[in-house]
Design a protein that fits this description.
four-stranded antiparallel β-sheet, globular, 289 residues, 3 helices, mainly beta
């Protein structure tokens, strides 16, 4: 009897070991947060009613003492210390569907959903001078836009397309590069493509319709961090936009994630639009080496 069942016991033991190894490997490969962060443990800053529909957020040179933000409907730039109830507002233009804000080279850049951009000096905001905003039309093809990032080191502005007329396939998402001059002039400087098939591969989901809503870049690694509010994803891409990682976002924590920014210490901030039942907020995720 012992000789008869011994091979069976050995096979069962080997099978158990294989299953344990596979399960462990799967758990390790499906981390819920990018390296250095815990997306389950944010510091939450609730925003007042006037910023319930907050979309984009940004810092000037990564200085965390002042956050700049805009909301969907008003042509105003808001600025405040994260966590403070003292919210300042600067009127720069007419009402419109504004989706993101960036600051670089002494200029504030505002993105409207139809791809029209506005630039005006940051100095005017601080001194409360009348806005002399420049309007930039025709730099981006017809479409809908929500994500933007400005790079101080290269004076480049990157704009993500949510729905673009030039995209013939749902398997790509286009990034447009603009150059920003000191006086606020914007000029076209090329484009790149994000491969949506890689996102499908990493998530195990087929036929993903990817709609990016926010864009920022880690000052430590140079990786791109891309938000998709519709998909509830945080996508990490390399310097050349190659997809490296995809993280699902818990809808109980991230109600409507649309704004994303890093401070100079590589702490990550994500803003969420509110609604009739909940306030808009900014979530801070401290970076840990």
């Amino acid at each position: 009897m012992k000789n008869t069942f011994k091979p069976i016991y050995i096979c069962l033991l080997l099978l158990t070991c294989v299953l344990l190894i596979n399960c462990t490997g799967q758990q390790q490969s499906k981390s819920l947060s990018p390296k250095g962060y815990d997306l389950t443990r944010p510091v939450k800053y609730e925003l007042p009613d006037e910023l319930t529909e907050v979309s984009g957020i940004a810092f000037n040179k990564g200085k965390a003492d002042t956050m700049y933000a805009e909301q969907d409907e008003k042509g105003s730039l808001f600025y405040f210390k994260p966590g403070s109830k003292d919210i300042q507002r600067y009127k720069f233009g007419k009402s419109g569907d504004y989706e993101d804000v960036a600051i670089s080279n002494g200029q504030v850049i505002m993105l409207r959903s139809d791809g029209v951009l506005f630039t005006f000096p940051l100095q005017a905001v601080k001194s409360s001078l009348p806005a002399d905003a420049k309007t930039w039309e025709g730099l981006l093809p017809e479409g809908e836009y929500e994500g933007m990032f400005a790079d101080d080191s290269t004076q480049s502005v990157y704009v993500l397309c949510k729905h673009c007329s030039i995209e013939k396939s749902s398997k790509t998402s286009t990034v447009f590069t603009l150059k920003l001059a000191a006086e606020g002039t914007l000029t076209s400087a090329g484009q790149a493509v994000i491969d949506i098939k890689k996102i499908e591969e990493l998530t195990g989901q087929k036929k993903i319709t990817f709609h990016p809503s926010g864009l920022s870049r880690s000052p430590l690694t140079g990786d791109w961090y891309i938000l998709s509010s519709v998909n509830k994803f945080l996508v990490v891409a390399g310097a050349n936009w190659e997809i490296k990682e995809v993280y699902p976002l818990n809808p109980q924590v991230f109600g409507q994630p649309e704004g994303i920014a890093f401070d100079k210490d590589n702490n990550l901030y994500i803003s969420n639009e509110g609604d009739k039942l909940r306030m808009g907020n900014v979530l801070k995720f401290a970076f840990k080496k």
